[in-house]
Design goal:
mainly beta; Immunoglobulin-like; 4-stranded antiparallel beta sheet; elongated; disordered C terminus; 6-blade_b-propeller_TolB-like
């Protein structure tokens, strides 16, 4: 019995021990497994991310300048996280960790701001921050020279601005002082010139001089070009060749050609086939038209074709031209203002010229088969005969007298007719290359083309032919193709050679180089084309 009791007690003890082990195993094993899992997650970094997610924060800032204006594209930095402000100066930065953070605000041209902030989980409105502009480096002196494009002479009374900065002027040019580094708009203007505008001029720490500015006088040249599929058209450009465009739009297969800019340079005469009338030879009849230099007020001058030798009066008030009518060449005088045409129908005309004021016209020809030199009002009234000879090379002088020549046998005679006295006097023969010289609008100079040793160039002299000055050395200037500037400061002319057909201009000061304006096409027989 005792043995049985002992064996029973041992069995009960073993059962109790096994039960405790099982309980311990059931409790400890999950703890170990969870521990190992957490250790693995920690080793992989997942646990840290999970804890960070519990601490995520978002921060919003508003940035303005000293004038309380929004600052766009300012950099907002939280450690390694970077954002920027929008056009309203706002920025919202996410994926931040709650807690203490170092905030940095930066923008080029402003002093940076750095500040420690404490972020809570979720959204954080940090409010408005003000950035103060940093003092820019300044350049003590920046120089600028302004010259006339044509004369190459300095211009000292132009209105010059570098954004809101104004320079002082001295004999050495314009000078800006204490200019902050940055980007500026340069504007140069002067009455009688096209404005010069450079929208973005960068001033750096090494800037001491701005590029030279060349001001171009207001005004235009008109020219013929066949750039549109070989069809001739009339174009316009500035004196430096910029702003080229159609003066009038060419129509279909028809052509506009041989433009002549009037002396007052606000109207243009040209020939055109835009009427579309057949000439019976596979082409179209040309007619004269006048248009304002801005392309408006297109007016037909001639009702008949076959006209030629068109000439503007010096004041721009009349246009003279001739037309062959069966047995005679008839002279016409068109009033640009009244748009009316006067006809010298009783005369067979072969040369004519307007007086300097445009009020009178002199012409040579036949009346009833008898030679003569005639003088009349430009509207074909008050015609009177002042010489009985056949004369040529008509030219009004600065004093209003009329010069001309006649041939008698093998001799050439030169005359000057004084309208105040009604008398003719014999004068010395002028140099052959000065015959037909063009008097300047102010009456102080005569311009002409002279060919010397095979080289054709532009010359000027005083109204008496003295004090000659050569203006060009191009050597290929076209004879007769001269046009004075309204202010008598320069001359426009053509150059024709195997290399080019182009329009040029040159200052009358004798120091500046001639300058090419534009390549052109020339149609002779209908005017020289200015």
């Amino acid at each position: 019995m005792l043995e049985d009791n002992i064996m029973g007690e041992d069995l009960s003890l073993n059962l109790k021990l096994h039960l405790r082990k099982k309980v311990l195993l059931y409790v400890a094993l999950p703890v170990v497994v969870v521990g190992l899992l957490i250790f693995g997650l920690a080793r992989q970094g997942f646990l840290g991310d999970w804890f960070d997610a519990l601490r995520r924060a978002t921060a919003t800032v508003h940035i303005v300048d000293a004038q309380q204006q929004p600052v766009e594209m300012a950099q907002v930095v939280f450690g390694t996280v970077i954002g920027s402000t929008d056009a309203q100066g706002n920025a919202t930065i996410g994926s931040l960790v709650a807690g203490a953070q170092q905030l940095a605000l930066r923008k080029s041209g402003f002093n940076p701001v750095e500040q420690e902030v404490t972020l809570k989980r979720g959204s954080n409105d940090l409010g408005t921050f003000t950035l103060q502009k940093s003092p820019a480096a300044r350049i003590s002196k920046i120089s600028l020279t302004v010259e006339d494009y044509i004369s190459e002479q300095p211009i000292g009374d132009a209105y010059v601005t570098l954004s809101d900065l104004r320079p002082i002027y001295s004999d050495s040019g314009y000078e800006f002082t204490e200019v902050p580094v940055g980007n500026y708009k340069l504007t140069v203007s002067k009455s009688g010139y096209n404005d010069y505008i450079a929208p973005k001029v960068k001033i750096g720490t090494d800037t001491s001089k701005l590029p030279q500015v060349l001001l171009v006088k207001t005004g235009s040249v008109v020219f013929e070009s066949n750039r549109e599929g070989g069809k001739r058209g009339v174009f316009i450009a500035s004196y430096d060749g910029t702003d080229q465009r159609n003066l009038v739009e060419r129509i279909g297969e028809f052509e506009d050609f041989a433009p002549q800019l009037g002396p007052n340079q606000n109207k243009v005469l040209f020939s055109s086939t835009r009427d579309g009338k057949s000439d019976g030879e596979g082409g179209y009849k040309p007619y004269f038209y006048v248009v304002d230099v801005d392309g408006s007020n297109l007016t037909k001058v001639s009702t008949k074709s076959g006209i030629y030798d068109a000439v503007w009066s010096p004041d721009g008030g009349y246009i003279g031209f001739t037309r062959y009518n069966a047995s005679a060449t008839t002279l016409y005088s068109y009033n640009v203002v009244t748009k009316s045409t006067s006809t010298f129908s009783a005369y067979d005309t072969y040369a004519f010229v307007y007086s300097g004021d445009g009020e009178h016209i002199a012409f040579s020809g036949l009346k009833g088969g008898v030679q003569g030199l005639f003088y009349a009002n430009s509207n074909a009234t008050g015609i009177k005969k002042i010489d009985n000879q056949e004369v040529y090379s008509l030219e009004f002088t600065a004093s209003g007298n009329l010069r001309y020549l006649s041939y008698s046998g093998n001799k050439t005679n030169y005359y000057e007719y004084n309208f105040a006295t009604g008398k003719r006097s014999t004068i010395s023969a002028p140099p052959i290359d000065k015959i037909g010289a063009i008097l300047s609008p102010d009456g102080k100079l005569r311009a002409y083309v002279s060919t010397r040793d095979g080289r054709a160039n532009v010359y000027v002299s005083g109204p008496d032919g003295k004090n000659e000055l050569q203006l060009t050395d191009i050597n290929k200037v076209s004879q007769g193709d001269l046009l004075w500037a309204k202010d008598s400061s320069f001359i426009i002319f053509n150059v024709t050679s195997q290399d080019e057909t182009a329009r040029y201009l040159v200052s009358t000061n004798g120091a500046a180089d001639a300058k090419k304006i534009v390549d052109i096409n020339l149609s002779y027989g209908y005017g020289y084309g200015y």
